């Protein structure tokens, strides 16, 4: 079960690294604007805000990766909990898709980590 937990935590970290790239570096591109349903004008106006959000997602990924490297379950439990709370808030305020992109993988990874203890 431990290897399943490690794979799922790694997957959640990769999802958040991908979000970092989207929000910090590709925010103004047509593909990302289509993904988030924004206009070129909105993307230009909100680029700094999106980069800030991307940075926070980077911190989530860093905490998860550190937990994997240090082989310390406290870090993944804490950071997965943060991912889940942020995802629930995002789903309630931005898009329900966030439930499937962020919350479900986070919950599965958290359950696997707790079961592997």
From TrEMBL:
<keyword id="KW-0472">Membrane</keyword>
<feature type="transmembrane region" description="Helical">
    <location>
        <begin position="98"/>
        <end position="116"/>
    </location>
</feature>
<dbReference type="Pfam" id="PF06993">
    <property type="entry name" value="DUF1304"/>
</dbReference>
<dbReference type="InterPro" id="IPR009732">
    <property type="entry name" value="DUF1304"/>
</dbReference>
<keyword id="KW-0812">Transmembrane</keyword>
<feature type="transmembrane region" description="Helical">
    <location>
        <begin position="47"/>
        <end position="66"/>
    </location>
</feature>
<keyword id="KW-1133">Transmembrane helix</keyword>
<feature type="transmembrane region" description="Helical">
    <location>
        <begin position="73"/>
        <end position="92"/>
    </location>
</feature>
<protein>
    <submittedName>
        <fullName>Putative membrane protein</fullName>
    </submittedName>
</protein>
<feature type="transmembrane region" description="Helical">
    <location>
        <begin position="7"/>
        <end position="27"/>
    </location>
</feature>
